[in-house]
Amino acid sequence: MSKKTEPIPGTSDFFPEETIQWQYLEGKAHSVFSRYSIGEIRTPVFERTDVFLRSIGDQTDIVQKEMYTFKDRGDRSLTLRPEGTAGVLRAIANKGLSQGDEQRVYYIGPMFRGERPSAGRKRQFHQIGVEYVGKVSPEIDAECIILLLDYLESIGLTDTKLLINTRGISGDRERISGTMSDYYKPHIDTMCEDCRRRYDTNIWRILDCKNEGCKTITQNAPSMIDLISETSRIYFDSVCEILKYTGIQYQIDPQLVRGLDYYVHTVFEVVSNNIGAQDAIAGGGRYEILNPGQKHPLIGVGFAMGVERLLLAKNANKSDLGKGICVDIYIVSLGRPALQKNFDLASSLRKQGFRVLMDLENRGMKAQMRTANKVNAKITLIRGQSELDDGIILLKNMNDSSQIKVQFDEITAALKPFFNRS
Q: Please, what is the end-to-end C-alpha distance for the chain in angstroms?
């Protein structure tokens, strides 16, 4: 393949046989999220750079190493969005949110990070995310987690594990940071270059390091739950209590902090054992984000799921992702008069909601039937000159190869049993 026609490394082209899987996941998102009274929001794929610097944290790996930042013709610094929350919160702040009000939204779209591509994570990757913005309570956090698990169950992903932790309130941070500094001080010289930098700039980021040597040291670090205030403890216990009451199994992970600086209180991840070392397929938590020009932060809780990782996990389970029938009815035309008449038939069936494909090349019967099989048509309708003369059409069930003659004006009624249409 010519290098001139390949996509840029870390990006991909997706053809119809693949996008049908994406549409399946997106369709489930529209369906499940609407049951929680959550509406879709669409924001630009690039923002002013300070939208991300102020929200994500300037010492995170995303800001330090991964953002695609550039100057436009007006000499403004712009960045392709590396995650969804910051832009959504910027949009809500711009629209305005009255005190005590709540905005529930979800988004679907591409994100961009200049990191080394790995399984399920490319430089242009895709996320489905949800944000509950404007109110704080353990109950809201719990419902957000329940919603995430509800969605994963709806797409057949049940072989997963929920990890949960707390980062406490902002008032806990100085005490926690001091304790962590004391713990890591005798180890820091043996840790990776990034962690040595994080020790001085943002010690919390050490907990998120993926280096195996650093992870071994972190395993014995003080538990954050033992260091938080009583207020934070009560909040976290309330979240866990609701999850227990609703029968949701979870594991408390004392080192879970997530990779962004805006988190407070509850943080969580859902991991899968089927996609390799990078096992997180979804994650999120409660946050406070101060947008440029604001005096007070917006508060919320949310999560994001990596679409590519969802697909990896689903395919590892050999689960149905909508790969089956993509055409309801294939129309076979034998001769030009039948082809001309079948244009009206195809148009009528499409207006009734059927997915219809018809042969437009006036090919032979065998060639058309091969195509019907290739596109997984459920029903094939066959019409030639003799059928035109008799006012009938042949209806073939592609599942069992049975075939019946149907009066042309009764075709809609004849199709109903195959598609459960009222």
A: 50
Distances (CA, A) of 358 to 19, 150, 339: 22, 39, 9
Q: What is the pLDDT of residues 178-236, one digit of tens each?
A: 888 888 888 888 989 888 888 888 887 788 787 888 888 888 888 888 888 999 999 99
Same domain membership, residue 162 and residue 92:
yes
* Per-residue tokens: 67: 């953002």
Domain that holds residue 399: 329-419
Co-location of 306 and 401 in the same domain? no
263 and 233 in a common domain? yes
- Residue 71 sits in the same domain as residue 93: yes
Q: What contacts 106, CB < 8 A, 6 or more positions away? A: 29, 33, 38, 39, 40, 41, 128, 129, 130, 131
The fraction of the chain above a pLDDT of 90, given in percent, is 55
Residues 6+ apart with CB under 8 A from 385: 334, 335, 337, 338
The phi and psi torsions of 201 (rounded to 5 degrees) equal -105, -40
Say how many CA atoms lie within 13 Å of 327 toward its Cβ.
21
Mean predicted confidence (pLDDT) in 294-323: 80
DSSP code of residue 7: P
Maximum distance among all alpha carbons in the chain? 92
310-347 as b/e: b if 16+ CB within 10 A? bbbbbeeeeeebbeeeebbbbbbbbeeebbebbeebbe
* CATH number for the domain harbouring residue 365: 3.40.50.800
* 345: phi then psi, degrees, rounded to nearest 5: -60, -45
| Contact status, residue 263 vs residue 107, Cβ threshold 8 Å | no
Domain boundary among 285, 316, 347: 316
Phi (first) and psi of residue 105, to 5 degrees: -140, 160
CA distances from 299 to 12, 15, 82, 204, 341 (A): 35, 39, 20, 21, 61
Q: Rounded distance, CA 81 to CA 47, Å?
A: 7
CB distance 228 to 221 below 8 Å: no
What residues pair up with 289 in beta bridges, in sequence order? 298
